[in-house]
Amino acid sequence: MKNAHNKGLSRRWLIGGLAVVALAAVLWAAYRPRPLVVETATVAEGRFEQVIEEDGRLRLQQRYTVTAPTAAQLQRPTLKVGDTVQAGQVVAELAPAAPAMIDTRTRSVLQERVGSADAARSAAGANVRRLQAALSQAVLEAERAEQLARDNFIAPSARDQARLAREAAQQALRAGQAEQAAADHALGEARAALQRAQPSGAVASAQGLWSLTSPVTGRVLRLHKENSEPVTAGQALMEIGDTAALEAVVDVLSGDAPRITPGAAVQLATGRSQPPLAGTVARIEPQAFTKVSALGIEEQRVNVVVTLDAKAEDLQRLGDGFRVDARITLSAQDGALLVPSAALVRDGDKGWRVFVVEGGKARARTVTFQDRHADSAWVQDGLKAGEVVILYPGSAMEEGRAVKVRGAP
Length: 409
Fold this sequence. Notes:
The chain is an alpha+beta fold. The protein has four helices and 21 strands. It has helices spanning about 1-30, 105-150, 155-195, 200-205; strands at about 35-40, 45-60, 65, 70-75, 85, 90-95, 210-215, 220-225, 230, 235-240, 245-255, 265-270, 275-290, 300-310, 325-340, 345, 350-360, 360-370, 375-380, 390, 405.
């Protein structure tokens, strides 16, 4: 009996002990620290670039505006925007402007002026005929005096006087003829002023057209006048430019402008699925301007002019005013040890550190770097190529914390 009792007691103790062990195992599994799921990146060597990224636009290096040299009637243009023109090609034609219409009072004045000019012309004609008769008489008297002088009937002085009288009559006739010509012109002027305005087609056909030519080989960018209409002297008719000679203008913050140097490399993205265009900084304009940002903040900006290092055929699909995304390189270093900026956390007031995955646990590592930007940092000390760092470590991350890489089995 006693042995049976002892066996029963031992069995109960065994069962109780197993229950306690099982309970402890359940509690340990429920409350043990679980590995923190993290995202990681590998430290690697590569090219570190410090860049400025801003929006810009393309513009023509040379733009020509064709203007009217004088007041005239513009003929309807045959060119359209985008048409190609050659240097010296006729791009516009001007006809002389038609005179103003004549009112009744002005017409009466001009008619009287025509009558006065006609009377003056008649008087000049009569005077010419009188002078012709006087010249004929002077010629006859000079011939008679020559004959009488040869026969010694008159003195030589009388013969000379007859010759001078003939020459004076000739000069008087020439003066009278000039007055008659002036009267003819005055009459023609008065009659021309009396005529009504003619249509531009009639004036053009009588006096011809004035042709304006293109100063450069290029394309028509803009037509200021698309119809036949009167134009004034200096009025713009069209704009022509060479679309194969483009440059980019990128406005940057005035605080970033001193960091940019002429000759810096630039990459210009012109659109989706299009390869970027290479360029270099040609100059930085010395004057800033105020621009309101998308957030409504006034900013001081400076234009940076970029020369494109592209072939003419690569620019045919682009044009004046096209938008580009510019990436200006301030500095570059090959073979730099790079770590993502998302892995950096503050270590005190001035220092930085990262968490490296070693044996499934996070290990804090103090690092120093040469330079950094929004994407990565150029590490000088504290890391080696190939090490795995934790991205976006939160407040739960600490030294020795068990971690599990997201996506790992």
